[in-house]
Amino acid sequence: MPAVHKVLVVGGGVAGTAAAIFLAEGGVEVRLVEQKPEVSTIGSGITLQGNALRVLRQLGVWEQVEDHGYGFDTLGLRAPDPAGTLIVEMPDARTGGRDLPATVGMPRPELARILIERAQGLGATLSFGTSLVSFEQDDDGVDVVLGDGTTDRYDLVIGADGLHSHVRSLMGIDVRPAATGMAIWRVFTPRPASITRTDLFYGGQSYIAGYCPTGRDSLYAYIVEDADAANFTLTGPERVAKMRELSTAYHGPWDDIRPLITDEREVNYTFFEAHTVEESWNHGRVVIIGDAAHSCPPTLAQGAAQSLEDAAVLAELLLSAGELSPELWASFRARRFDRAREVVEASVQLGQWLLEHNRDADVPGLMGRISARVGVPA
């Protein structure tokens, strides 16, 4: 018998929809609320490492992800020289197992659609345009008030509402993501035939320039540089011009991407941020997961994977335990806290080495250590 029978999930991102799927499939009554009015139809791409794919297979959506994404098993390193010279093409770690690709790139909105439709198909109730306003809990349940004015009582509330989590604030946890000093420009474009995997260019005018194929006809490209708040004031066309100008330092396949960075494209600019909630992720019958509990820069492409792992572990424990006990929460923390914190710290460290122009940094060692850690199921 599961530890819970009726659960409210706050947040319709990767962590929230995954938790809703697992619990609904296990026979739990699930309501998922998302403050956005609908599934976003815009956005960039997402890089899913093998350990993320392993959870997506558990969720029953791997075949759809495979159909709508772009899988590959190698990683290229290129020089920031006039030819974009390929230095090395290396096998990437297949952290989800030998029967899954090392990496899949796909459009973020497509992944969101797949997960939401899967949750609805299993009977989860989804409400868009509303979120959690307040809650009061006792030993037996949680009384909630939602933004649409409705009230209800649940056995458990799962806060999966992202970096700037309102649930986290309502729990009294005063932790916020901190900027790391780097920022990233992203653009979603058609995929030139020359691009069949991720290549990374280190150095040159910026710290990193890279791209990831996200489908037969799409990719997202990105450039990482020093954070500058003034860039948030740029208009859409100014952002396009800025990213095109930065891209002129890189060649090879970048010469095929550059003409596709046009005014009708949406260029996104965000700071790298990171945090880990050190205290318990649950306060009684309210728990946070995913970016609400921990976040990292995309230097290791582990953000979505760690969110999916949170949902998988939490759902496994809830469905296999007879009650919400201190032992359940201790087990959840034991399986998730150190692992997530290690990924966050390693992701930040990679960026810090770049900021410091540290040529002696053991990047292969760090990446190998994280790959070995996440290659073992959480």
Q: What amount of the residues lies in strands?
A: 25-35%
Classify the fold: give the CATH topology of the largest domain.
FAD/NAD(P)-binding domain
Largest sheet: 8 strands, mixed
**Annotated CATH architecture of the largest domain:** 3-Layer(bba) Sandwich
Give the neighbour order of strands across the main sheet: 6-5-14-15-16-13-17-20
Name the CATH homologous superfamily of the largest domain: FAD/NAD(P)-binding domain
Distance between the termini: 23 Å
Low-confidence stretches: none
Q: Any idea what the radius of gyration is?
A: 21 Å
Describe this protein's structure.
The protein folds into two domains: 6-71 and 104-177 and 274-374, FAD/NAD(P)-binding domain (3-Layer(bba) Sandwich), CATH 3.50.50.60; 179-272, D-Amino Acid Oxidase, Chain A, domain 2. By secondary structure, the protein is an alpha+beta fold. Strand 14 (198-202) and strand 15 (208-215) form a beta hairpin. It is 33% helix and 29% strand. The strands form four sheets. An eight-stranded mixed beta sheet has the order 6-5-14-15-16-13-17-20.
Please write out the topology.
Elements: E1 6-10, H1 14-25, E2 29-34, E3 45-49, H2 50-58, H3 62-68, E4 70-72, E5 74-78, E6 86-91, E7 103-107, H4 108-121, E8 125-128, E9 132-137, E10 142-146, E11 151-154, E12 156-159, H5 166-170, E13 178-189, E14 198-202, E15 208-215, E16 218-226, H6 236-247, H7 254-257, E17 267-276, E18 282-283, E19 286-288, E20 294-295, H8 303-320, H9 326-355, H10 363-374
Parallel strand pairs: 1-2, 1-12, 2-8, 5-14, 12-19
Antiparallel strand pairs: 3-7, 4-7, 5-6, 9-10, 10-11, 13-16, 13-17, 14-15, 15-16, 17-20, 18-19
Helix pairs in contact: 1-4, 1-8, 2-8, 8-9, 9-10
